[in-house]
Predict the structure of Nephrocan-like.
Amino acid sequence: MYLLYASLVLLSLSDGLRPSCPGRCSCDALHVVQCYRLTEVPASLPSTTKRLSISHSKMKHLQLSDFTRMVALEELILLASGTETVDNDTFNTLSTLKTLELWKNKLRRVPTGLPASLEVLKLSDNSICVLHGSEFAGLKKLKVLELKNNLLSSLAPSMLSSLVSLQSLVLDGNNIESVAGPLALPHLKRMSMDNNKLHLVPGSFFISLQSLQFLSFSGNLLTKIPANLPKSLLSLKMERNQLNVVRFRDLKHLENLSHLYLSENSLSSIDGAQILANLTTLELSQNQLQMLPLRLPARLQKLDCSNNLIQRVTVQDFQDLRDLKHLFLDNNLVSLFEAGALQRCSQLSNLALEQNLLLSIPLRLPGTLARLDLKGNAIQDIAERELKDLKQLQVLNLRNNKISALDFKALEGLPRLRHLYLDGNPWNCTCSLLRAREVLKARGTDVRGGQCAAPAERQGESWMSSKKIMRQCEHHLHLAEKTREPKKKAKPEDHPSTRIPVDDDDYDYEID
Ligand SMILES: *[C@@H]1O[C@H](CO)[C@@H](O)[C@H](O)[C@H]1NC(C)=O
Ligand SMILES: *[C@@H]1O[C@H](CO)[C@@H](O)[C@H](O)[C@H]1NC(C)=O
Ligand SMILES: *[C@@H]1O[C@H](CO)[C@@H](O)[C@H](O)[C@H]1NC(C)=O
Ligand SMILES: *[C@@H]1O[C@H](CO)[C@@H](O)[C@H](O)[C@H]1NC(C)=O
């Protein structure tokens, strides 16, 4: 009797004041407990714990008694702890549990008897090979189910039929070869089955997915875009498949589709995407396109046709794309770029044309450009008329071209220029080139200049920093400074580095 009384006092003390925290754990005032390197679930965990996270431990087996005292638990995370088996109903008594995460373990099946309160279940990075409908029975509140990187080989409607509230299903990185429908998940918004082995998705699969907005089948073996996609779709990802044709007529009902990702397929032409009136992003990188897509949607903001076989850019190609902001045409075979081809794109801020066959900077580019990449072409000079309208330009990349001389008047028309890449060109290091250097430096433009190819005695010197050239050109520089000085004093606000606001998309330009 006395013993019982004493232990009750002890219990209420530890509950009421400051419950003790088990070894290798940290406990905080908000009832969050984090533990590392355990071999079993500690018996002395505070029963008020709301969030328990255990990681990098060795717990091969979990059993009911591990958690029976945890009556307030809302979130349980057991990560990278080598767990292989879980007794039936181990979590069943946790009637307040909302989130259960058991990822990076060695589970071969979904634990049975999960509590009906569960809203989030994450079982990614285990060895689960099959799902049974019974494992999810009663989970009417489950919204998120993640089973990434397991060993599932098929998906059938009966497996998930109890999950009437499911909103997000992630099955990336399994071995799924076949799916059957209809999958009756009326609230499902996101489904991802990237990196599986699907050859075919039957049209019946989608019939009862009337809320689906984000669908991803990237990294499969599909040769066609599945039929009967839900009307509700906003985004469709089909990258890294084996598509060789897209029939946009079959996608006509996708009136709200705004993002379509078709990179890394085998497409040789694209025609008629304008049927998707709300499309704003179209990605077609790494296909075999020999020309730009025909009849594009008028609301397009981003078009990525990089890494194809495109040879020409004409006025015709872009005449209706007034909302275009980002255009990627790098790594193609463009040798012909019609003057003014992008003049109608009055929002264009980002143009990537690196690694093509251009012999000169295209004429009459839109004045809205903030970033122009022409790296790795065969451009021989920079003319004033090519750059004079680019008042917003902040980044200009002309690395690895064939430019030998620089007329700094051409660059004076670029008031916002911050980064200029000129290395990898065969510079003829005359004293006038050095003067261009002084002008750029004075304006605060960050310049990569590269090395001199001529004259012979300056070969290999860096034209932006060589002391030798500076000494030899001292006389020229001195003259240049004298003529510039009064102007500088009259307009001190001209100094660009103090005036230019940093734009959102002004990320540091990568150097490779
Ligand atoms: C656990 O549940 C499964 C299926 O619900 C059942 O077949 C099995 O016998 C149960 N195991 C134990 C030890 O009760
Ligand atoms: C398309 O989007 C609009 C506006 O969000 C919405 O009212 C409409 O129901 C959507 N159409 C479909 C087919 O989901
Ligand atoms: C999609 O386009 C249609 C027709 O142009 C328009 O009525 C609808 O509002 C658009 N939906 C969205 C989400 O913009
Ligand atoms: C370098 O420029 C000078 C002066 O303009 C010229 O005489 C010379 O031929 C040029 N060298 C090369 C290799 O282009």
In short: Residues 1-17, 483-512 have pLDDT under 50 and may be disordered. The pocket of 2-acetamido-2-deoxy-beta-D-glucopyranose (ligand 3) is lined by residues 255-256, 277-278 (CB under 6 Å). The helical segments are 2-16, 157-160, 384-387, 408-412, 431-443, 467-472, 474-490, 496-499. The chain is about 15% helix and 15% strand.
